[in-house]
Amino acid sequence: MTAIITSPETVQETGPAAPAPGRPWRGLLRQPLGLLSAGYLLLLVVVAAAGTLLTPRDPEADDLAHTLSGPSGAHWLGTDRLGRDVFSRLMVGSRPTLLGVAEAVLVFVVLGVALGMVAGFAGGRTDRLIARLGDLVLAVPGIIALLMVLAVFPDNNAAAMIAFGLISSPSLLRVVRAVTMAVRNELYVKAARLSGLSTPAILRRHILPRLAGPVIVQVSLFAASAVLAETALSFLGLATPETQGPSWGNMVGEAASVISVDPWLLVPTGGMLVVTVLALGLLGDTVHDLTVGRARGSAVRPVRRPRPAVRTAVAVAAADVAAAVADGAPTEQGAAAPLLSVRGLTIAFPSPEGEVTVVRGVGFDVARGECVGIVGESGCGKTVTARSLVGLLPGGGRVVAGSVAFDGRDLADPAGREVARLRGSRIGLISQEPMSGLDPSFRVGSQLAEVVRRHHRLTRRQSRARALELLALVELPDPASVARSHPHELSGGMAQRVSIALALAGEPDLLIADEPTTALDVTVQAEILNLLRSLRVRTGMAVVLVTHDWGVLADLCERAVVMYAGEVVEQAPVSDLYHAPRHPYTLALLAANPHLAAVGQELPAIPGTVPPPSAWPAGCHFQPRCGYATEECGAGAIPLVTVAGGHQARCIHVDRLEAAR
Amino acid sequence: MVREAIRWLLSSLVLLFVVTVLTFVLVAMAPGDAAKAILNARSGGYTPQQYQEMRRMLGLDQSLPVQYWHWLDHLLHGSMGTDLFNGQSVTQALGSRIGPSLSVIVATLVVSGLVGVALGIVSALRGGVLGRLVDVVSLGGLAIPNFWLALVLVELFAVRLAAFPATGYTPFGTDPVQWLRGLVLPVLTLSAGAVAFIAKQTRDAMSDVLSQEFVTMLRARGLSTRSVVLKHALRNAAIPVVTLLGLLLVSLLGGTVVVEDIFAIPGLGQQAMTASASHDLPMIEGVAFLFTVVVVVTNLVVDVSYRLLNPKVRAS
Amino acid sequence: MVRSLTTTRRQALIAVATAAVLGLAACSSSAKPPTQSGTGSGSAGGRVGGTLTVVTDVSPQTLDPAKAVQNDAWFTELAYEPLIVRHSDGTLVPGLAASWSYTGTGNTTFVLHLRSGVKFSDGSALTAQTVVDDLKYVVASKGQMAPFLAGDTFTATDPLTVTITAGAPNPNFPQLLTQDYVVGGMVSKAGLAAPTGLGTSTAGAGPYMLDAGQSVTGDHYTYVPNPNYYDAKSVSWHKVVIRVVSDVQSVLSTVQTGQADVAQGDPQTQVAAKQAGLTVASSPLLWSGVVLADRDGKLAKPLGDVRVRQALNYGTDRTSIVNALFKGLGEPTNQMTVPDGYGYDAQLNSTYPYDVNKAKELLTAAGYGSGFQLKIVTPDYQQLNILAQALKQQWQKIGVDLQITDDADANKYAAAAFGGAFPAFMTSFGAIPVWMEGPSLFMPTAAFNPLHTADANLTKLYNQEAVSSGAAQAALDQQIEGYLVHQAWFVPVVTTGLPYYARNTVSGISTSATEPLLDLYEVQPAG
């Protein structure tokens, strides 16, 4: 009877974020377990429908001379107390059981989907009313309800199962409501409404298809509970007595009553239940994975090893790349060894078609105290490059080639132990979205103190004091009150200051700032930039700044690396880049920069978009969008060439660019 | 806060009212009544006069609203009436049975909560084959019928190994060690299924949280994996898990019938079964009332823990 | 098994239906002293002080001896000393009554001489008036046994003498007033004054009394010695705990694992108990089979013909059924009593050998050669529903199509069977003195005769039996049994016992053909 619970899980996860791959069942075919489960269930339905047509023996024919015989050639699963064939009885017994489950599921689905859709679509008072009703039903103790229903309709399987469906339906209702609400608010549905499509039509055309996945998940889980509930009821002697023919419930009950004489009988009867519930559960799981998608590779999950075949392919690609970048190392070397030295960095991500390289052969140096910018459009690999420096690639991404040397240590080793030791203490990271970078559940002070304590031997009291100092350091006006706040109580600017304080807690030598101002409004942007500048001066730390904003770059950085479609296309001191760009992409970027455009002049946008990694052209990645492109550009890998001291560009037309200026 | 409390109180009262009224109506609709059950039990048969007399004695001859009013009136004076069969006060009977039930339920929640959350975390962290394995194993726990597992456990651990008692319940106050020993097998039986739900829910919630930006940032700040997973991610994944634990408690409340039967634990599930089989209205009402109170209190606890876990809910 | 969760408890509700009961040996009213010799002396002293834990799947509805049913006897007999004690060997020995006898002939006046100086657990003294009040309370409570005392006059003819003047002849007062029928247990004056309290507490003069503080209704009942018990040296235990474990498999594992010393078992676990090395005691107690209630053919015309009823008996392969379903638990039977039970006649068991041809001949002769449909209702206990299914298969061979209604809810079954809604019903019936059996089983007003078949011959025999005694009574008992068998009012199939299991920690686990119920107070520490 524990079965009288259906998981509320999907309420949360199939919520607004649920993507909708069109036909989950097509994907089902690729999942062996799911396929097997579906096949088994289908077979079961056929067997139940066929009744005695398929049974090897008459399920009612007794044989008092051979009772409880155990499995044999004549009786594959043995015989019961009256010598009847267990196998045949199990086949026939599937009918009342499945019928009961079907009744429960029908009520469950009809009520859950109908009310859920109405609640989710209508919203407002209707929604609240239905939700309240659902809560009410959910709060009624299920067992009491079933006992009462069975008291009113004794031995009535159908009544019990319908009641079971009814009292369970609110869990489906919640899921359906959540999905409906999410879909309703999507643009195309709004558009459909504006264009005058009737509500039923919208429900049918746009919302029902999206419900299929989550509903199937819920239904299969519920059906599993219903199988157990149906059998538990028969087993308790409350439904389907044996004299009305076999059902799984009364067969299990019978088996249990002879357990001390013949334990075998429990195996086929209980086994049937277990297998069926498992099949339903697995089917639900599979559909769930296909529709909702299991979170693929989380931040904490160690990188999975690729399969050998893929590895070879990647290795080949890497070798290819290595050749292309062999000469691409930055040439300008300071007298002292650089703090950070990146060489031939190549990063790949898993995809259904195997690993895809998204960053290829990136190399640059950062000297102590220096600020280096990484610029480029979205999708060029800037953030991935920055994250790889701290060993925190999302979603199963990994460094497949190249090296990241930090103060003499190699950070790109696959185990990531070296980099883990340096994170927070010598390398800090601040991110694009200050708010989502903070744990919403803990107070700012406590989060900060925890990081402080992690990097310094301090008592709790000392670390709390240090936390306040840090908040003061990032120029927050009232550190004590900020420390007491939860992240959601902060403004974006305050949150970014807190993020910076968190990154500074370990007093790092290098700060990686990934678009630190993008999400902020303009005045706050300036404040944060000022803060970063003054912090650089005060702490003497080096900064790697990821940005697509030339203004920010000019404000903070000495040198910049320009990336396009996973490659470094140019790097140079910032002023050289501004005044003498040697790559058509840099030139185009500069031209599109609003800060530089002359008043009254139309802003030239770069035509086209950055190609995804899977569509990188051979040769120069920029050539399809490049005004200078010639046939040679697509002929082969383009090397990074040094055009001046400390200035490199990946273009065979550097001279034409020079000439054009 | 005060408004919330009032709202909770009001909705609880509505729920209690609805459940007790429905129970009354359903019991009245059920074929047969307590008078018949008592007469059958005592003498195996009865004349119409005897039946009418018994009905009058039990107050069943009054109209339903009047009966309900009497019950409500008694309730307001702190009495839930007496068992129609042996005259025991319902309050007392339920009082003696709530301890065993709660022991089993709470222990099951603790055990399945700990194991389920642990499995869920491992599955969320490791994914792949191990995750699948956790899925299948926990589904298996779900699929094995309670009674079957219970019988196997008894045969193995009580009869063969004599490690735990086969049946019975010892109150904590009498002997804490025996209390614990007596709970082991029933709790194992019930946990097998519960673990599956909790592990699944935990895995989904954890996967979701672990893929969020703040987890990456926590690691970027150098926090240990242990702190990131067990402190920060788990706390953020806790709400759906707590919701599930609340639902589990409610379903265990009566769902322990089979286990109480096999392990002879004098709990509420058994009382519910017996009472409804014998149409013992005061007892049925008592059980329904108590169950609903537990449900209402559980919902309150879940609500309060939402507030503790999620500062945003607290604020609004 | 878990089905027994409902059935055993519901079984208790209709104990009268199974009328599980009692021993035979009618009338030895010889005033033997209690034969509890083993207890007082020597080694027993060392063991006294232990706790006896017994386990049963029966949960008593009430502890009030006037309302309790026979299945609850364990719960009442420890606390309520009966007027007359039935010893395990079947003899009747003095309890609260030192001696008793009928006065005159015709079984209408019965005199009890009470033991002097007896006190109840509440300290009050036993007087003839208490007994009179108690018996009146029994009649007024309309309990299971009330009909056998209704119409009688109870008089305290002196402070320690009670005279019962029967409204109609009653040859079974001595049996009726033992612990086996519960009502023999006497309640104190204070107890009678506040009868509602009797549901969950005790007020008797027995060796023990309920300790309500250590008991949980429906789960376990703890009895402690009654300091006022008149025969203190026969109290063997400092504490007796009766545990209720509703699942019969769990009853077995409870005693198997040493959590209990003694168990009231169940045929379902009897074989396993023996295999587990427990002492198993069982004596025949019940017969199970079909009541062909519609002997006048009101609902099912064919049953009105005796040949049809006989054909059903011939068409039943009892041996196969017993071998398949009751192996080691029971014996095939043709009669409505158990071996050595009241009216038992071994020769009767050859009345209906399995003979399909004979059955078909009889049916053809009666005009039902092409068969007929018969509706039957069955409860779930005592494997009766399985038995019904076996009969359905066997009777198909003689053209009878049995339509089975299976009521797991024993109350519903009772309503259907005893309400006269079915021409036939499955039942298990306890062996019981014939005079008491009549109003339960076969007389026109009997519950098991819901369509009120009246048979002048039978009534005549019954009335003769009521006023008879001794050998004449035994002969009449056999005549009545034989008449019922030949008239084929029933299709009895098997006789079974009620098994008891015990560990080697206790002795005194004995039952006999004349006392198939285990008397708890005879259980003693082993060695």
TrEMBL record, chain A:
- What residues form the membrane-spanning segments? 33-54, 98-121, 133-153, 159-176, 215-239
Identify the stretch(es) annotated as Disordered: 1-23
Alphabetic keyword roster: ATP-binding, Cell membrane, Membrane, Nucleotide-binding, Transmembrane, Transmembrane helix, Transport
The record describes its membrane topology as:
Multi-pass membrane protein; Peripheral membrane protein
UniProt domain ABC transporter: residue ranges: 342-590
- Where is this chain primarily localised? membrane
According to the entry, every stretch annotated as the ABC transmembrane type-1 domain falls at 94-284
Q: Tell me the compartments it is located in.
A: Cell membrane; Membrane
Ranges of Polar residues composition bias in the record? 1-13
Which range is the signal sequence, renumbered to this chain?
Answer: none
Cite the InterPro entries for this sequence.
Answer: AAA+_ATPase, ABC_Ni/Peptide_Import, ABC_transporter-like_ATP-bd, ABC_transporter-like_CS, MetI-like, MetI-like_sf, Oligopep_ABC_C, OppC_N
Family matches, as Gene3D superfamilies: MetI-like, P-loop containing nucleotide triphosphate hydrolases
Family classification: Belongs to the ABC transporter superfamily.
Q: What is this protein called?
A: Dipeptide/oligopeptide/nickel ABC transporter permease/ATP-binding protein
Automatic annotation (TrEMBL), chain B:
Has UniProt tagged this entry with the keyword Transmembrane helix?
yes
Provide the protein name. ABC transporter permease
Record domain ABC transmembrane type-1: where: 98-302
**Localized where?**
Cell membrane
- Give me the segments passing through the membrane: 104-125, 137-159, 179-199, 237-259, 287-309
InterPro entries from the UniProt entry: BPD_transp_1_N, MetI-like, MetI-like_sf
Family from the record: Belongs to the binding-protein-dependent transport system permease family.
Question: PROSITE patterns annotated for this entry?
Answer: ABC_TM1
Organism this protein belongs to: Streptacidiphilus cavernicola
Q: Which UniProt keywords apply?
A: Cell membrane, Membrane, Transmembrane, Transmembrane helix, Transport
Which Pfam family, any one of them, does this sequence belong to? Answer: BPD_transp_1
Q: How does it sit in the membrane?
A: Multi-pass membrane protein
